[in-house]
Each structure stands twice: as C-alpha cells, then as structure tokens.
Amino acid sequence: MSWLKAPVLLKSQESSNMEELVKQLLQANVQQQQTNTYFQQALDQQNQIQQEQLNAIKQALVRQPRDEEDRAQSAASARKAVQKTLLKMTADDDVEAYLTVFERIAEREHLPVDRWAEVVAPFLSGDPQKAYYDLSGVDAMDYTKLKGEILARLGVNTYVRAQRVHVWTFVEHQPARSQMHDLIHLVKKWLQPETLTSAQMLERVVLDKYLRSLPAKLQGWVGQGNPSTADQLVNMVKRYNASESLLHGTLSPRWDPKKSPENPAKAVSSSKEENVAMKGS
C-alpha cells in the first residue's frame, strides 16, 4: 500500500513547492512595486525642485529690470536732492571742508558712491575744477581719485594735516567745546581712524615725530614727498644725503637716518673714528 501513497505525497509536495514559489513571486512583485514607487517619488521630487529653480530664475529675470529701474530712480532722486542742497564752490571756500560737506550730504541722501564724482564736478571751481578736467575720463568718474588729485594740487597731504594739528592753539574767548571738536576734527583728518588700522595710525605718528626731528632744509624736502611708510621716509632721507654729497664733492654722509637723533654723540664719535682710519690708511 505504501507504493499507492507515494504519488499522493509527491503531489502534495509539488503543491507545497508551487505555493511557496507563488508566495515568493508575490513578495518579489510587492518589493518591485515599492521600489518603483520610491524611485517615482524621488523623480517627482527632483522634477519639483528643478521646476522651482526654473521659476525662481524666471522671476529673477523679470524682477531684475524692475530692480535696476528702481535703483536708477532712487539714484536720480538722491542726485536731485544733493544738487538742491549743495552750493557752488567759491574762491573763499576751504576745499577740504567743502568736499567733506558734499560727502555728508551725499551719504545722507543715499547717493551711490559711483555717482559722487559726476554730481560734485559741476559745483567745482578754480584749481579743483582744473583738476577734474585734467584727469582722464575714467579717473574723473572715480571720486577717490578726483579728491586725491584736488588735494594734491592744493598741497594738502599727511604732512600738512599733521602741521595743522601741531599749530592748533586754544583761544581764550571762544567756546571750549567747539574748540575741542575742531581739534578732534583736525586729528581725525590726519590719522584717518575710519580707514587706517591702529598699527598704521601709530606709524603715522612715528613718521611725523621723525620728520620733525630732521634738519629744517631736509624736513621741507622730505615733507613735500609725503612719505606714507617708514621705509619711504628713510629712503628719501638717503637720497637727499646722496645728492648733497655729490653736490659738495664728498661721499661722507651729512645725516644718517638709521642713527637715533636722540644720541648724536655716538654718530659724531663714529664719524671721527672713520676719519682717523682713513688718514691712517
């Protein structure tokens, strides 16, 4: 009878295997559908991001002309306000003070810095006006270069600003607070704390003290060169010494910038030793 039961068992096993296979196929199908759904969602999300980016670019392109137009209108309005407030420069005006007033008006009215030169130019007169016309077209539109050229022609440099600080004196019958503000203004013009670092301001003070310790003739010559660093000042002193030596037919230096002016005896002693050595040779 066992041989009759074998086919039944075989069919039962085949049926069980088939059910397992069908079950695995169904699970694989479900997993595939889940995978397809995941990739579709990722693709839809990517398409959405790309569409949002595209919309943002379109909006920016549409908004850009409007922004430029708004800026142009704002600049035009600021320009009219500055022109309405600013007065024509006269021969009696302090040019540096006049430019400072213009800068404050321009900042108050939010005039773009790249428009400053073209706005102030029609209000200039005399040497400042000549300085504007003598600059190239590109430089004349740069306010920093225009201002630098104007002040250079008028001889206003770091040395002159320092001199204004040194010659300032208290006037007994004038308001004390007003005089303090005047002195602060002069010092700020000299040291320029808005643009210079602490180290640069310190160097400017040292340069001024060094320069004022030079002999009068040398001090005037170096001051005209307006050195801005210690190396520049020392090199100018060396050039002056070299030219003086050539003019007097001697190569011995008249003043050594590397030797401290506070210890002239050492320099004199050294010079005597050199002369003795030369005679002995």
Automatic annotation (TrEMBL):
Domain SCAN box: 163-238
Biased composition (Basic and acidic residues): 271-281
InterPro entries with a match to the protein in the record: SCAN_dom, SCAN_sf
Annotated region described as Disordered, given as residue ranges: 249-281
Gene3D superfamilies for the chain: DNA breaking-rejoining enzymes (1.10.4020.10)
Protein name: SCAN box domain-containing protein
